[in-house]
Write a structure and sequence with these properties.
34% of the residues lie in helices and 17% in strands. Helix 2 runs antiparallel to helix 3, helix 4 packs across helix 8 and helix 5 crosses helix 6. The protein has eight helices and eight strands.
Length: 284
């Protein structure tokens, strides 16, 4: 069964971030068996046993995706808290999307000298991506990703690597504990080309425009040209890729066939924003 995660938070510190821990197979099987009979994630209390402390157990089921599925991912910070602390963390997030998208991950990947071009060490084995990255945007307290499943369990493995790396970095840097995220990620499978187009604009344009410093989304919709010029300079989104400034984080993909030029994507984005059409794919 792909994607079962068990999140544990001590009863005495329930309001703190839950931590991903290992519990005994008996307790794990017990919790998962209860979850399987419910449509929604469970909040389950288990009593103290010989091997596990008294705890609140959050079980979150991450559905497996079929090969070639396109998936919109949202992953939020715990209790709405920021998932990055400073500019370096945000830059690290973008690099992370490249380096975690590989079967092989070197523990020292983040010590590679930061340059405009993402590089791999010659000593590393040939890159074997887990997913195809089509789009991303980092927001203050959450992230949006548009991914394609290219191998069994690839999305799940990729998201686990991204989440764990960000949590480990944040906790070490800021002396925190537990996961920085609100459980597992939310996902929505994209069934049509039309939905894929609108999902891309929702992720890269609507969300970036929410950060527009002259008044957010509402002002950006009224002053699209200025907002677009600002938006394609926002370094923590793939929007610039579709404006003609390529990044190695984004793979060659079907969106580039749908929108063969930067002008074509900009025209579509304008229609979506000025017409308020992002609501067709709004997903939080």
């Amino acid at each position: 069964m792909i994607g079962d995660y068990i999140w544990v938070s001590c009863l005495e510190c329930f309001n703190k971030r839950p931590a991903l821990v290992q519990v005994c197979s008996v307790c794990a099987d017990f919790c998962i068996s209860i979850f399987r009979y419910s449509k929604y994630p469970q909040l389950i209390q288990i009593q103290q046993s010989d091997c596990c402390i008294s705890a609140i157990i959050f079980i979150v089921r991450v559905e497996p995706f079929s090969i070639d599925s396109y998936v919109h991912i949202v992953k939020r910070g715990a209790r709405g808290m920021p998932i990055t602390g400073d500019e370096f963390d945000r830059q690290r997030f973008v690099r992370l999307l490249f380096y975690m998208n590989d079967e092989y991950v070197d523990d020292n990947w983040d010590r590679i000298k930061v340059t405009k071009n993402l590089t791999r060490q010659n000593s590393w084995p040939q890159r074997k991506p887990l997913v195809q990255v089509l789009a991303f945007t980092l927001m203050p307290n959450h992230m949006h990703l548009l991914l394609r499943e290219i191998r069994d369990g690839g999305v799940s493995a990729f998201m686990q690597k991204v989440g764990q790396s960000m949590t480990n970095h944040y906790n070490e840097k800021y002396a925190e504990h537990g996961s920085i995220f609100q459980g597992s990620y939310k996902s929505r499978t994209i069934e049509t080309d039309e939905y894929l187009r609108y999902a891309s604009a929702y992720i890269m344009v609507k969300n970036v425009f929410e950060l527009y410093p002259r008044g957010g989304l509402q002002t950006a919709a009224k002053h699209f040209e200025d907002a677009w010029k600002w938006g394609i300079t926002y370094p923590f989104s793939s929007l610039a890729h579709y404006a003609g400034i390529r990044t190695l984080v984004v793979d060659d993909n079907v969106l580039e066939e749908i929108f063969p030029t930067a002008r074509a994507y900009k025209s579509f984005a304008r229609d979506v924003i000025e017409g308020g059409k992002w609501s067709q794919t709004e997903f939080e």
